[in-house]
Structure formats: C-alpha cells, structure tokens
Specification:
Layout lengths: L1 H9 L1 H19 L3 H22 L3 H49 L1
Length: 108
C-alpha cells in the first residue's frame, strides 16, 4: 500500500485526476444520478487498479530500469564526446581545404 501512495505522490497528475473522479462519483450519488455514478465508479476502480498494478513492479524490473538508465546515460556521454571530436576534426579539415584553395588561387 505504501508503494501505491509513493507512486501517487510521484505522479501528481494521476492522483489529482483520481480525486476528481472520486468527487464526481460522490456528487452523482448525492444527486441520485445512479447511471453516471456507476460509470464514474468504474472509471475510478480501473484507475485505482491500473495505478496499483504499476506501483507493484517486481524488484527485477526496477533493477533493470536503473541499469538501462545508466547505460543510456553513458551512451549519451560517449555520443557527446564523439560529436565534439567530430566538430574539431571538421574544423581542421575545413581549415586545410581553405588553405589549399588560397594557395591555388595565389598560383593562378
């Protein structure tokens, strides 16, 4: 149960939407709009079930997600280094090409 509460705290949009549906359910019951109350109760029950299931992920999946995030982050760092190196090499090659063109222009 505490992991479900932690999940709702971490996802306030979901928690707020569930509260709104609950308020609608209470409103519909008090107004004696039973059909709409049933619909809002079903929506609330589905939302509660789905969020509870999502919050109860096995430890293996949580560890896999952490490791995947680490791999992705290290990949981003490597790509950043490669891009910087590529920019430097491109600048060098461009400079050399410009110098060669200047030399050819001077010869002509």
């Amino acid at each position: 149960m505490s992991s479900w509460v932690d999940y709702l705290v971490a996802n306030p949009v979901i928690a707020i939407s569930m509260v709104i549906v609950f308020i609608l359910f209470i409103f519909m019951v008090l107004r004696k709009l039973i059909k709409w109350a049933i619909v809002s109760f079903v929506i609330l029950a589905l939302a509660a079930g789905i969020t509870y299931k999502d919050s109860q992920k096995p430890d293996v999946i949580k560890e896999l997600e952490k490791k995947t995030e680490k791999v992705i982050e290290s990949g981003r760092k490597q790509v950043g280094k490669i891009i910087k190196k590529g920019k430097k090499e491109t600048a060098k090659a461009t400079g050399k090409a410009i110098n060669k063109l200047k030399d050819k222009v001077k010869e002509n």
